[in-house]
Amino acid sequence: MVCGADALVWTLAEELANSRHRIRLTVITPHRIRPDVPDLKLLESRGVELRQADRLDERAFREAGLSGATALALVMPDDMVNLHAALCAREVEEKLRVVVRMFNTGLGGSVSRIFPDYVVLSDAQMAAPAFVAAALGEVAPTHFRHDGRTLYVAHRGDVADRDVLTTLATETAGEVAVLPVEPDPGAAEADDLVLAEATGRPPGEDVTRRLLSRAGRRRHPLTAFGRALRAALNRKLGVAVVITLITTVLAGAVLNAWDGTEHDLWESIYVTLMTAVGSSDVEEQRNAIAQAAQLVLTIAGLALLPLITAAVVDGMVNARLALSQGRPSGPLHDHIVLVGLGNVGTQALRQLHDLGVRVVAIDQNADARGVKSAQKRGIPVIVGDASQEETLQAASIATCRALVVLSTNDPVNLQAALHARAIRQDLRVVLRLFDDDFAQRIESAFQINTSRSVSRLCAPVFAAALLERNVHASIPVGRHAILVGTVTVQPQSELDGAPLSEVDQASLAKVIAMSASSDEWMDWRPDPRRVLAAGDQILVAARQRGLRALAERSRGQG
């Protein structure tokens, strides 16, 4: 049984309906769901039963036939609704595998400790690294632990050959091949994406260092001072101050040149400043040019002091307003503009901040989930419509390094991306869209760097958890998700007695390691000629359909 109200419920139901397992699937949704969710009635032809309930309580679960069910997925977009539904479901069916979607990872960890049989997953936490990596043009420092070892994702050129366990993806002529045949040592490219073992250093250290070095470029102190000065002055006041200063300098130069007295540099400065502040006396014996210069200089001095006072006050007021409203106090450079502070946007914001990248956030709602998180980190937030060009201009879109659009409104996302491209053609744009096929077509038609569907990235992990597949990690590669999981060979299964080499299937699954039923240790570089036996466990990196096929081949005939 699957319960949800947004894009994830459709994608997860589709994943399960396409499974080769003989699954009796029931989907429960509220009467009103997000308008961008496809018509779930399209799944009825595949045997999916559809029900509607605005409240997920014991009565709703009993009426939907939860008694006797083997698994329940609660993927509503509200943590409290999911938690309440999980507690109600236990009253209806005790022997139930429950997979719960939660944004609050702290609450999710507590739920997992109290109810060890619950599987708590965060789609935002799974999807955010893919958007962060795309924004930076790099690999996100993804890592996980298994059997006492730390494994992490990196480019082949960043790790020693002895630490590489398997190749996850290669790129040739712009085409990405996922889980390819392992290349020969001489043919391997430095940009190949690999799964490596961390030995003697923190996982992902090389990748993280490179991200930080690119994100946090050193700035000259004078450059920073100039930007602060420009931010403090509004344009009209700044022009007035500059004109007055130029007039003062020119009049002082003329006065000292035509005064009839030779002055050194200090004396020239002294005479100019004293005259400018009104401390000069009438000098009738001076020639007409010197007298005119003295007059202009005195008048300019009278204007200069109030202008300087006004500039200081205006700068302080602007800075305080910007600080209180959380908006940028002036133009920014080499930053990332992030649109949308919902679940995924908030996770991406935190990760970018942790990597030391400057961020400006935009959201239409001043009470969005991530606004407080941004303010806590000192990240400026612009409350406005990102589909409007003036909002993007306020975020200094012309001088940023990338635009990441993660709101849940596809038309707004697309419009913001196109406006940004109109302002700057070479801008890196990372776009979130619901439909994966639409995302791919948009990426090709409008030369968007990356467009992805969050539900498509995360649904395979939720489906695997529901079907009791032992999944340890999800690795985003482009638009795809590679799952790292364990397959156990059961007696009289197709894999029982087969060589390990039959598990490897290009673009579907690759063996990382295996553990024999009689061994307590894991072989991280097993011989492909090794014959499998019942009880053997195989650690694989696989696509969703590849892991599904392996699970079926490992299942016993009884």
Automatic annotation (TrEMBL):
Keywords: Membrane, Transmembrane, Transmembrane helix
Native source species: Actinoplanes palleronii
Highest rank taxon of the organism: Bacteria
Domain RCK N-terminal: 333-452
Protein name as catalogued: Potassium transporter TrkA
Family matches, as InterPro entries: NAD(P)-bd_dom_sf (IPR036291), RCK_C (IPR006037), RCK_C_sf (IPR036721), RCK_N (IPR003148), Trk_Ktr_HKT_K-transport (IPR050721)
Transmembrane segments: 237-258, 295-317
RCK C-terminal domain: residues covered: 472-556
